[in-house]
Every structure is written in structure tokens, then in C-alpha cells.
Design goal:
- Chains A, B, C, D, E, F: One of its GO terms (biological process) is tRNA processing.
- The structure is a homohexamer.
- By secondary structure, chain A is an alpha+beta fold.
- Chain A is built from 6 helices and 9 strands; from the N terminus they run ββββαααβαββαββα.
- Chain A has a 5-stranded mixed beta sheet with strand order 1-2-3-5-4. Chain A has a 4-stranded antiparallel beta sheet with strand order 7-6-8-9, with helices on both faces.
- In chain A, a hairpin with a 4-residue loop joins strand 8 and strand 9.
- The mean pLDDT of chain A is 95.
- Chains A and D meet through helix 2, strand 8, strand 9 and helix 6 of A and helix 2, strand 8, strand 9 and helix 6 of D.
- Strand 9 of chain B pairs antiparallel with strand 9 of chain C.
Chain lengths: 248, 248, 248, 248, 248, 248
């Protein structure tokens, strides 16, 4: 049993508020336990310079934490004058992950920017940003499909992410901050609805890990992501949104 | 009658959620119509270098808008590499206004930082930040008073702010974004519970204004702020918080 | 009687040197007591991106202090790597104020940049920058009118600014640095030749102020600005420059 | 057979020049095919602020590419004014990986900085930096042990890294730039001499990958790293350097 | 005969206003033809970190041009976010040159900062800054000597600088902007009162120059600097300031 | 006799590796004693904005030192967020010097960027960068001439640079770091194959120097550069490269 009463293979309660923002093409407030992330998807009818004139679209992400999202206040990156390494690493991961399920050719020359702003952080902010960012993206593409007639539906599959780790010789699913700070290994996994891996990032700075531990973590992550994707399907289904048949 | 059905001297519906953030010493989510600002108050047991060793405290504020708080997405200031002039101007105003009701000597050598992050903007974000920031500050000082025994209660009075303007020859209270962008004059007023002025900032870039218009705006602002402060008293009173008798 | 021998409602001696700079389209060295500001107006036959193709012009201002303009030396903003909040706030104010008397449509697609560089600071640098910046602007537009035939004269009215404040229960006009640093309220007022308000910015961080004090300050400011505008008229008149009849 | 004649499970020729730099405490020029990285280890008898007074040491890494290390010239980060996201991500990875085999307590209050400067890039610059950075670190600690008497030898194990990927349905070891740019999956693995994992980072942005592909890549990486560590042992052994018996 | 009527070996008219700034320990407004530089010397009773505790002083310089000091307006370096290469090069030169005549040991642990702000530029701004900066420095040290009793007078000698160049096969002294922009060689020379060289910087980017031309320029520079130093002596002598006998 | 056994007028051993970089159009690794600089020449078929449409080319240089090129480690400029003054000064010098022997009109609308990255520094890094940068430039133009048919060969002459100085009353050629740090005067000279001066930069911050010392240094520099240019001719000749007959 874990400090918050969960089983080792149990996700935290997930909650979502659809369209909390009246301006964004897609938006969700996603909560995983006490971690709260506001994800907005903004559609811009232009692409970055390196894609101009190729008929392809682009999906990118930005990530930030409010100064008091954490136990002690952090200085704003606007005052530091730059985004720190951790921020860049995370937003690059979110962007890559989301692009993996978007048919950029089908999207056409437009950019969708997913902003993930962490209002409160209690572990798993990057994985929750991916799971929530996918929902915001799906809402925006759904909205776009009302005005643009896509030859193929640009969203190819579902996508979700979860963290796993090893703490006191036990493999745990969906670590909160306290668990995460004590874990000897920490791993983030991103998978598609079809059950393929998009990202696997495991780090054993505190203590290297064995192949058996790696396999244990991968198994638990697969199981957790399957639940998250089922929950995403229900959430979008209730809102009348269906991911297109298009296969990549 | 105004586009949203209000009378010229009518405030938008104000709403507050107390303590939405589990880490901050004080926090509120304040809503004025569709403007939503998350205000947190963080206590730090240190003061800035220029105050060290004087036995005095400090109150300061920071302000930011999420990228999609507005109709079209704005670039993050962390990516621009600096805060823009508008941001600096606003957070300097919020900080000055809040300090005017704090007895810095009584607070002792500690800093309270008020972060005002605009989740959604529909006009009046700076005045709403002041009104909400005051509540977060009051909650934090109330919490502090549970562990620190202050010789005098460091919060001397209530404080609220509202915008007024002149649109089509009519003086209006609490402008929303649409009204604000058409107004010929725009004025922000900050007042204390005792009815004194803390800040008066009127700008007639589009069209200079007369003394009569100025007087009209000041009158409407006084009336609106009186209502806001009554509402603040109720809000804090319901939470069992009373501003000390201490006079400045 | 004030420390420098002035009456409460008395301006400091104002002095101006016209065209001290041989390159700028308009320039003045303005002195208000010991405050000295070099103001240049530079005409550029382009407009910022947001105005392109609209047939309108633009007026903008920049403000800076030389490192030793003040009692103790300040670090250069070029070395800090950015303009500080105070600088941005002031130059935004100067720009807004000057634009209020310019007919941007009449000016045509060109930008006039007013640079206000404080050589020596003894209080009132922002108000002196506005009063002097107006003169530089008027000289530049006058010079422009020699080569461009404007349908309407682009300068609609005179403009000047002064500070007022409350010190030891007395309302004072045109505060020097020593008075300013002790005043409980500080207010900057900008008005046109027609007697309308363009900006009213009063701050009572040290001590909130009453409506009566506000009215007293506004009255004194009106009187001081009237004198400044009479002096501006003489100054320009002596130089053979007359502001056009055009009404806004 | 691969374009450069290698078998799928074949490393590129590895070459090392020990101590090419006369100032650094440890330095190597490592070459993996046409990828050339100069790694220096600099010892500083201080630790970062967050470690002061704890009796522990620190190991950190910085990574950069010379402007013409690549096919077309890249702008210097000193001119951009900041390190880009990719750089930060890589140097954070190198630092974490190297720290995993250092006994920071045993090292004492000193910092070792590993600089990895890529002179020529042909794929695998981050994994080659880790493999070479380890050698520079080992040389520096060996040198330190000549003057400092460590209670335990601060280097606990060997460490090396290699990339693996999937290209045209085939799992390949140690991709060069051309292979890397065409691969559907790209994975970097870091392991210790004891055969444990320190980092596993797999990315399938172009195309998600299956568990079978993941297992194939992990197997190939293990085999490649075993060879690299054997080569590291020979290299250091020839230089008379033996990693201490100390276990973590 | 030159365009402005001068002989090839003739300086422009030099003019100086002593102590134009009421705050600085030393200040001069120096004019060389239409080039006008405001030089202030600020004394700070601290030294930079690298000199702490050595009992030595420091002299440093900063240089900037007002935006409209030149024919067309330049962007402020505070807005660019950094000083450009030309600025850094010039202020490093001014600082080095001035330090060469200061006995840093005799000065004691204090820093004198010479700010050279170009109000109007017509060629020779760096040499004029050195010549004027020396005067401001001398005034500041003279003032210091009124309150500090120096064992040796910290100013060892006079110092001045001038530019020379080759234009249409003729060697010219003290080039103005028009001459400078057409010259094939441009050289700045700094010398002491004793007739020694402190800096010699000749550049023939447009066209390499011969040893004979170099000798011609050096001769003319020596002659010009001798005149400037005589003028400095008169200027300071009239103000009752005498450079101490101290030899370096 | 000098500490390293050289005569006063003796160069350090010079060594060059041609084309150490497989991507750059021209590259050399140049060694002057223990000073090692990697110089690459990159051709870009565009020119900077200020040259667009004039049919002329451009040559520019950038300079940097690896963090541990020196005795103690230096912070990277990418982390400082800017290039320091010394770097800017040096790269401006290298660029100017190289441009002096290039016929920019003949080169056509293309830019050649010379990157000089110091791998190890032992004095004379700027002069070695010029001497080596010239070789990289010559290799790149030679390569270009294989595909572009130039009306005139764009490289007009050879170019090399050396430092000279005065140490203990003796004039020395090609100072190493130890000599340089003790020298009272330090001078860098750049000359063409035709024996003309391109740059002469002498600095006597520690101690002003006489005309006789200046003449002594110039003589020694001429002699050293003559040897360097002979060595450059051999080096390029062995590689089958001949500088065109074109005269400037």
C-alpha cells in the first residue's frame, strides 16, 4: 500500500474540464491527483519558416509552471530571461509525442500550438501535459474539421502518457511528487491507442536499474496508458468527438 | 444599456474561489465577468537587499498572462527573453497599491510576493488583479498571524480597484474588453476601505478629456470600489478573517 | 516658502536651447531648474509593421538617463541587458502623451521618434521630457512641412506636463528631487493647449490621499501647465513656428 | 550490409587520443567514425551553492558543437545569446549519466566539469560524448588520487553509451548521421560496467515502435556497450589507470 | 587645403566646459569641431572583485552614443539588449589608456569610472573621449586629494589622443567624419605628457599602408598630441589644478 | 635566450594540418608552439543585408576559445549569454584583416565566414588565427574557383600576423603566454605578402613605450611575417594552390 492508499498499479484519480477557456480552439483543465494542468490548443494559419510551401502542417508545444505551482515559489522564466533546460526538455518531449499521432500532410499549412501551463504540481506534470494536451489537440482538430474539409482526418490515433518508477524494490505506477523524489528510477512512457511506443525515457541517476526492473516498469506503464486511453475515449465520446478512421 | 445588458454604473458579476492552490500561504481565483485571475501570496522569510537589517518587511507583485488568455495567442515572455513594458507597468502598479495598506514595519523582515496570473482576459485584468491580490494577501497575513505574534496587525485597511471610462459621451463602470477597446478615455482607480485614493491613472491618448469627465469617472469609481470592498469584507468574514484595528 | 525659495505654486526657472543637435530634424535642450534633458526628434519615412499600408503615421518616444545624471552613478541599461520597468513606464507615457496632439492620419506613413536623454536629474524628468519633447516634435513637423505638403497640419495643439504633490499638508507645484523624495503623494499631469487632460497619474504609496487633495493638485497642475504652454508659444513664436489651425 | 560496409550489429571504429590538452586534469579526443569530440575534465575545488557544506562533490557536463562541425554552418550559441533546447537536453543527459558512477560523498567538496566539444559531427555525438567524457573523468580522478587521499575511490564503475535504431525494419547499432536521419526510431542507451541501465531514451516521432523492436534495440545496445567498456578498460589499463574496487 | 579650410596638420578647434554636471566628482563637456562628448568621472569607494584586498585602485571607462548623435538615428543598445562590438572595443581602449597614467597603488582601494557619452559625433569620438576623459579624471583626483591624503599623487602624467589618416595620398591630422569615411588608412594614437606612446592602432582595411605612411602618421600624431597636452595644461592650470610630481 | 630556448627574433615552431574537417570548404588546424587553432572557412551563397544587390561579396570572422583552452577553465559565452568585449575585438580584427586581401567585387554575392576556435591557448591566439584563417580562406577560394569562373581571382595577396613585445628592455618576436603576461608592451602586426601593413596595434598599458621601441617592434614583426608568408606559400604550394596574379 502506498502513502496515499493506492495499490502499486493504481492510477491517481483523473479529472477533466472541457473547454475552460473561451478563446482557444481546444482547451482542457486536466487533474491527476493534485497535479493540475491547463492545456490550450491554438490554431494559426501559418507554418514555421522551415515548412513553408510544402503543404504540410506543424504541431508544437510549450510548457511552463506558475511560480507557486510548487511547494516553494520559483522565479519566473520571463525574469530569468530564458527558459531553463528542464522546461525546454519537457516541451520538446510534449511536441514530439503529439506530432507522432498527427498526419501533418493532412493537416495542411497550419500550426497548432499546445500550451501546457501547470497550475499546481504534484508529480507527473510532463506525462499529464501529454495526456491533457492530446485532448486539447483533439478538440481543436474536431473544431477545425467543421470549417475545413480534410481529405484525411489529421488525427491518426489516441495518445497518452504515464510515469512509472522503482521505489523500495517495488515498481509503482503514476508517482506523485513525494514518491518521485524518493524513487531510485524514474521513467516516462508515451504510447498510442494502437499500443505502440512513442517515447520511453528512463533515468537511473540515483541508482542504475536492471533489465528485469525495466521490463516491470514497461509492463505497468502499458497497463496504465491503456486505462488512460479508455478514459480519453469516453471523455471525447461524451463530447461527441470521434477520432477519424484514418490510419497512418 | 450596455452590450452585455449592464447599466452604466453596474459592476460585472464578481466571483471568488478561496485557496484553490494547496501550497501558497494565500490564494484566490477571482472572476470579474470573463476575466479570470489566479492570485497567490507567497511568504518568504527574507527581504530584498535594500531592506536588510531594517526590521521592515516588503510586499511585491508579479503579473503575467497565459499565452492564450486572449483572443489571439501571445508569445510567452520567457521566450521573448524579457517582460514587456506593459507587464512591468502593471506589476509595479499592483505592488505599490498593495503596499499602501500594509504596515511594513509591523510585518517584520519577510517578503510577501503576490503572483497574478491571468487565465482569461476580458478587460480590467490589472484592477481585478489588485482586488484579488488583496484577498490573497489578507489570507496570507491571516495565516501568518497564527504563528507570528505581531505587535500590530500588519494589514491596515481594505483595498480594491476598478476601471472607468468614457464611451460615446457616457461614463461607464468596469469596462470589458470590447468597451475598453472603443473607449476614448480609460482610467484605473485604486482606493482603500477608508475611502482614500491610492492610485488614479487616467489616459486620454485617443482623445483628451475634460475636468467634468474626470470628475464623473472619479465618482463612478468611488461607488464601484465601495461595492467591491463590501464584497471583500463579506468574503473574508465568511472565511472568519477580520482585518485588524491597527491604523496606519 | 520652499527650500529653494519658491512659492508653493511657483514653477522652477525653465530654459530652452533650440536645435543644439545639427543632425536631428528637431532638437531642444530643456532645463527645469537643475533638471536637463536633451530631446531630439528623428523622422523616419517608414512606420512600424502594425501600421503598414494604412496611410497613417506614428510617434514614439524613448527615455534614458546618463549614468551620472543622478547623485550616485547608475549602471547603464545596455550593460544590464534591458531597459528597467521605470524606463519603460516613462517612455510609454511620453509617447502616448505626444501622440494625443498629433493627427496621425495627416502625418502620412512616417515615424517620428522622440529621444529624451536626461543629462542631469533633479526631479520632474518625465514631465520635463514631455514639455521638451513637444518642442522637438513641433520643430521637426515644422521642418517637414517645408518639404511635404500636408492636407492638414499634423500637429493639432500644444502639450505640456508638470508634477504636483503633497508635502507636509501643502500642495506644491513642480517638485525638485528633494521635495519629491519626501512627498506623500506624487502626481504627473499632462494637458493640451485647449485645457484638456491627456494623462493624470497620481500615486499615494506612502499615504493615500483625499478627494480634496486630489482637487488641489489638479488645480495647481492646470495653472502650471497654462504657464508652460504660454512659454512654449513664445519660444516657438520667436523661432517663427506657429502650430496649425487644424482641429482634431 | 550498411552503406558504410558495416554489419547491423557492428560499431564504427573507435579511436582515442589521451591528454591532447596540456592544461586539463583529464582530456581525450574521441573519434567514432567521423564523429570527433574533444572531452576535457576540469577540477574545481568548490561546489555549487546547493551543495555547500555537505562534504559532497559534484560532476556536471557542458556540450557544444563548433559552428562547422556539421554539413552546413550553424550559428554560435554565444551569438544567439543562449544555449538551445537540444544543447541543454544533451548536456543534462551527459551530466546525469556520469554522476551515476561517481561516489559524490567520496569525491569531497569539489566539482568536476566535463566539457564535450564536438569538432566534427556524424551521428552519435551525445553517446560518444558520454563514452569519451567518462574517460576524461577517469583520467582526472586518477590524477586527483595522486594528491588527495580518498577514503574510497570516487569512481565506482565504467560507463559507456551507444545509439541504436530501426531503419527499414532492421535494428542497427551505432548509427551514423545518414542512417540516423532516415531511421524511424532512435534510441540512446547508457550502461555501467556492471551491466545496469543508467539511461534509456527511445523516440519514435516518425513512427511508433513495438515492444519487439524495443527489445531488439535494447539487446543490441547491451552488446555494443559491452564492447565499448572492454575497449575503455584496455585504453585506461594501457595508461596504467585502474578503476577502484569501491562499490556503490 | 581641406574641405573645412584646415591645413593637413591642423587640429579642429577644441573647447571645454569644466564641471557641467553638478553631481559627478569630475566632469567636462569637450568639443572637437562638431564632435561633443560629455565625460564624467565617478568615484566609488570599492574595487572590482579581482582587486579586493590588494590595496590597489581601478580606473575603467564606458562609452556610448546618444541615438541621434549621428546623421541617421541608431537603435539604443539598451533595446538591442547588449553593447555592440564597436562600443566594447572603444571603451576598453579608453580604460586602458587612462589607467596608463594612474598609479593604481597610490589611488588606494577605490574605482574611478569615466563615462564618455557622445552627444554629437563628427569623427574622432574615441580620441576626443580619451582627451576629455583625462580631464574629468584629473578633476576627480584633484577633488579626492582634498579629502584623502595620498602618499604619492595618483596621477602620474598628462594623456591625450588624436586620430590621423591617409586621404588621397596625403597624411591628415584629426579627421572629421567626412574625411574619416573616405580615408584609406585610419589611425588612433594615445600619448603621455612625457611623449611616450600608450596606444597605436592603425587599420588599412580599405588599403594596406607602407612604412613611410606609417611614419608620416606617427609624426603628425605626435605633433597634434603635444598641442592637445599644452591645451590641457592651460585648462587645468586655469582651474588651479596641477598634476603631481610623482613619477611612475 | 628566452625561457623556451628561443632567440629574441625566433618564431615558435609552426605546424599546419590541411583540411582536418570534412564538411568545411576550407579548414586548417594551425599550431604555433602550444597554441592550437582550428580554422574553418564556410561559403554561403548570400550576403548580409547591407550588401544585397551590389554584386559584392563579404568575408567575416568569428573567434572563440574552448572553455579549457586556458590554464583555468573559462565560462562559455553561450552561458554568459553574450560574447565578451575581448572576443568581439578579436573577431573584428580578424575579419578586417582578411578582407584587406580579398577583392570583394570579384568574389560575387557570397559570404565566406572564417571560424577560429582556439583548442589550446599559449599566447598569440589572435595572430595565429589570422595566419591560419588566411590559409582556410585560400583553400575555400581555391575550391570555389573549381566551380565558379571568376573574372578576376578574388584573393589578391598573402596575409599573416605575428605579435611582438618588449620584455625586460628586450624586443621579442612571437610571445608565448608567459612572456606576454610579463611584457610591458604588446603589439600585433598584420602584413600582406607585398610587405604592406594592414593592422598595427600596440598597447603599453603597463608602461608607455618610446618611438625607438616602436620601431624595434615593427622591424621584428616585418621579419617574422616575411617568414610566415614564405611558410604559407610552401604549404599552399605543396597542396597545389597558387594565389592568382590579380592585383588590387
Amino acid at each position: 500500500m502506498r502513502a496515499d492508499g493506492r495499490q502499486p498499479d493504481e492510477l491517481r484519480p483523473f479529472k477533466v474540464t472541457l473547454q475552460p477557456n473561451k478563446y482557444a480552439e481546444g482547451s482542457v483543465l486536466i487533474e491527476a491527483g493534485d497535479t493540475k494542468v491547463l492545456c490550450t490548443a491554438s490554431v494559426d494559419e501559418r507554418v514555421p519558416p522551415f515548412l513553408k510551401g510544402q503543404g504540410k502542417g506543424w504541431v508544437t508545444a510549450e510548457y511552463a509552471m506558475l511560480p507557486r505551482a510548487t511547494q516553494s515559489r520559483n522565479q519566473r522564466e520571463s525574469i530569468k530571461g530564458k527558459q531553463v533546460g528542464r522546461t525546454m526538455e519537457i516541451q520538446r518531449l510534449i511536441g514530439r509525442a503529439l506530432r507522432s499521432v498527427v498526419l501533418l500532410d493532412a493537416l495542411g499549412e497550419r500550426t497548432i500550438t499546445i500550451d501546457c501551463d501547470v497550475l499546481q504540481a504534484d508529480g507527473g506534470t510532463r506525462t499529464t501535459s501529454i495526456t491533457g494536451g492530446f485532448l486539447a489537440l483533439a478538440l481543436a482538430i474536431h473544431k477545425l474539421s467543421g470549417t475545413v474539409s480534410f481529405a484525411r482526418y489529421p488525427l491518426a490515433d489516441f495518445l497518452a502518457s504515464v510515469s512509472v518508477g522503482v521505489l523500495q524494490e517495488q515498481v509503482l505506477l503514476d508517482l506523485n511528487y513525494e514518491e518521485d523524489s524518493k524513487a531510485k528510477v524514474d521513467m516516462n512512457v508515451v504510447m498510442t491507442g494502437a499500443g505502440s511506443f512513442v517515447e520511453v525515457q528512463g533515468t537511473g541517476e540515483e541508482s542504475p536499474f536492471s533489465r528485469a526492473e525495466l521490463d516491470g516498469m514497461l509492463g505497468l506503464a502499458e497497463q496504465g496508458i491503456r486505462q488512460l486511453i479508455a478514459w480519453q475515449k469516453d471523455t471525447l465520446g461524451d463530447a461527441g468527438i470521434r477520432i477519424g478512421e484514418a490510419k497512418r
